[in-house]
Amino acid sequence: HEKYSQNKTEYIIPTNDCHTDSLHAPEEREKAQHINNDDLTKWILRLQYLWNGPLYDLAHDLRFEKDLSDTNLSSARKNLKKLYKLQTILKMRFSQVSILQRAFLFC
Question: What predicted TM-score, i.e. pTM, was given to this entire model?
Fold first, then answer.
C-alpha cells in the first residue's frame, strides 16, 4: 500500500488490525437491520469515540501539517467538528432513552 503526501510518496506496511477491531457488527445486512435503536446508538458512540484520537491527531498534530495539504487538514478539522456535534446529539438521545427506560422500570 502507498500513502501519498504532499511532498513525496511513502510506503507503509499494511496490517490486518485496526483500532476499531474491538467493535463487532453483524456482517449480514438482515442481521444488522434487527439491531435495536439503543444498541445501534451505543455502537455508533463507541465507533465515534474510537475515531476521536486519530482524527484529532490528524487535524492538530504538527507532524502531519508538513505532509498534508491545507485542503486535507481543513477537511480533517471540519470532520472532527462534525464528529463532536454528532456525539453530542447521540449522547443526549441516549441519555433521554435511558431516563425513559428507568422511569418505565420503576412505574
Answer: 0.58
